[in-house]
Write a structure and sequence with these properties.
Strand order of the largest sheet: 2-1-3
Strand content: 5-15%
Order of helices and strands: HHHHHEEEHHH
Bound molecules: fe (ii) ion
Helix content: 40-55%
CATH architecture: 3-Layer(bab) Sandwich
Number of domains: 1
Radius of gyration: 16 Å
Structural class: alpha+beta
Mean pLDDT: 96
Number of strands: 3
Low-confidence stretches: none
Number of helices: 8
Largest sheet: 3 strands, antiparallel
CATH superfamily: Iron/manganese superoxide dismutase, C-terminal domain
CATH topology: minor pseudopilin epsh fold
CATH class: Alpha Beta
Length: 169
């Protein structure tokens, strides 16, 4: 992923954070989501900000490839092809997630800013702003780069153990 792509993506992330800040004082993003009520702009922006925080943790310059050890490797051996298929199946903007649900690890997809049913371990952004600079409209090339070079499996294992990054608390 190029520096310019990361920079462009951070600019989108900043817009969501700024929209939350403009809407009022909150204890954090979870608080903003809970208190958004009928304020759809706040609800969407807070969700998008939350998703992006988790997403940056979901990527690592030394990541990618299938998980080779830990619970992910043991319980979901086909997770890389499952993620790739889910990334290509989302129609329009959305997210693909690795979640923990009822003690099982699985892949979920959501539309727009929506969060998944399960407890999110990792998420990947499928909005065009996430890949347009590097790949134009070719989401399959973006998916291949994510899956072969960037997925942060160690972070997912830490999430299984209960780790929550400070900005998501
Ligand atoms: Fe994004």
């Amino acid at each position: 992923m190029s520096d310019l792509q990361v920079h462009a993506h951070l600019a989108h992330h900043a817009q969501y954070v700024n929209a939350v800040r403009a809407a009022g004082e909150f204890e954090g993003l979870e608080d903003a989501i809970r208190r958004s009520g009928k304020n759809a702009v706040l609800a969407r922006s807070a969700n998008q900000a939350w998703n992006h925080h988790l997403m940056w943790h979901s990527l690592s310059p030394s990541g990618g490839g299938p998980p080779t050890m830990g619970r992910l490797a043991q319980s979901v051996p086909n997770i890389v092809p499952e993620l790739r298929r889910a990334m290509l199946d989302v129609w329009g903007s959305g997210w693909v997630w690795v979640v923990l649900r009822k003690h099982r690890i699985s892949v979920e997809a959501t539309q727009n800013e929506q969060r998944p049913q399960g407890y999110p371990l990792l998420c990947f952004d499928l909005w065009e702003h996430a890949y347009y600079v590097d790949h134009f409209g070719d989401r399959s090339r973006y998916a291949d780069v994510l899956l072969s070079q960037l997925v942060n499996w160690e972070f997912a294992e830490a999430r299984i153990d209960g780790y929550t990054p400070p900005e998501l608390q």
